[in-house]
Amino acid sequence: MPLALGPRSASAVVTASLLAGCATASRTPAPLPRRSDVIVVPHSPWTFGTVAGQTVQLFTLKNAKGIEVQVTNYGGIITSIKTPDRAGRLADIVLGYDSLAGYLRDSPYFGAIVGRYANRIARGKFTLDGKTYTLAVNNGPNSLHGGVRGFDKVVWTAEALKDHDGQDNLVLRYTSPDGEEGYPGTVHVQVVYTLTDDALMVVYEATTDKATPINLSQHTYWNLAGDAQRDVLGHIVTINADSITPVDSTLIPTGEIAPVEGTPFDFRAPTAIGARVDQRQNTQIRYGNGYDHNFVLKRKAVPSDTLRLAAQVVEPYSGRLLVVSTTEPGLQFYSGNFLDGSITGKDGAVYHFRYGMALETQHYPDSPNQPNFPSTILRPGQEYRSITVYMFGVAP
């Protein structure tokens, strides 16, 4: 049955988790979103187009500070986020398209919910309870982001609801049938977007009738300069991780957990993306053509359902600040290495090399084939639940 908003889904639970994270964070504490009279604006939703006879809608969430988030129920895609710079000027800080046609034609997962399994599964195969499953392969020899038709390419049921705290939520639901893209089990998924005074909260929930891997994430490409006016190499990034999961030449983890100290992957102190992204003498940089790696977030002695700081990003010219907190154990940091200027996005902006970056909160890639990684198996009677918060601000 579809999941329903209940007491555990309310924003109060998110706030409580953030408070717990703040109490134990080892560096900058996880942000605490403030309550807000957030509304779904009167003209929202409006029709964005159709896919296979299904109506696709575009919803707008806006708060009193003028922060505006637009989401379509096609793929749960965040099409736009507008935030102010230090002078108060609003600009769009995510990559995407002006129309549904762009997302249907050619999109590297811009802004989408990715699943049933975010990131890669080696050779499109895994064994669960003695049975081997074969998945759709769509990224060299591997399966990526759920396969050929993952959650990013389906029309979700959308509903604007108030939770038990009176906050407005955009609730997206999708039922993934048994065998879809090769995965076992019928999975009921719910994703809730909530905009507060200064943050976007994303809550993922799922249930299944058969054991199955599940790993959901949000694949927004960020460019805090606004309106993609320059590359992201000057963005100053901090990642709350002492180690990464190194990969082979097809970007599948080797199973090792490797320290970042003394490598281009050490973002424990604020560092510009461009400072070390081209140090190709490093094998991992060479394999990813830059950063496209899972960082193992520091979560020692913290319950798995507690939000902790994952990353902070500052764009020095605009002053825009993004702080990411999550209940997930990993963060895929991607530096836009496959953007090549062939995509023209919103308002005619051309997305050149490294004009966007992704911060995908997640379990580790290829976990179903890596017994030493945290499990991603969901079984009947269990509930998958994951929370990520994106806090917006301006650096001093």
Descriptive account of the structure:
Helices cover 7% and strands 38% of the residues. It has helices spanning 11-24, 100-105, 283-288, and strands spanning 39-40, 46-51, 54-62, 68-72, 78-84, 90-92, 112-114, 120-121, 125-128, 131-134, 143-144, 157-162, 168-176, 187-195, 199-208, 212-213, 217-219, 221-222, 236-239, 241-245, 258-259, 271-272, 292-297, 308-314, 320-326, 330-334, 343-344, 350-351, 357-362, 377-378, 384-394. The protein is globular and about 60 Å long. The protein has three helices and 31 strands. The strands form eight sheets. A nine-stranded antiparallel beta sheet has the order 12-13-14-15-31-25-24-19-22. The chain has 396 residues and is mainly beta. The chain starts with 10 loop residues before the first helix and ends with a strand. The longest helix has 14 residues, at 11-24. The chain has one domain: Beta-galactosidase, Chain A, domain 5 (Distorted Sandwich), CATH 2.70.98.
Low-pLDDT windows of residues = 1-37
Q: What would the CATH topology be?
A: Beta-galactosidase, Chain A, domain 5
- The beta-strand count equals 31
Q: What sort of overall outline do the alpha carbons produce when their principal axes are compared?
A: globular
Q: What is the arithmetic mean of pLDDT? A: 90
What would CATH call the architecture? Distorted Sandwich
Identify the strand order in the major beta sheet: 12-13-14-15-31-25-24-19-22
Largest beta-sheet details? 9 strands, antiparallel
The radius of gyration over CA amounts to 19 Å
Number of domains: 1
Percent helix: under 10%
Strand content: 35-45%
Name the structural class: mainly beta
CATH class: Mainly Beta
Ends: how far apart? 48 Å
* Oligomeric state of this protein: single chain
Number of helices: 3
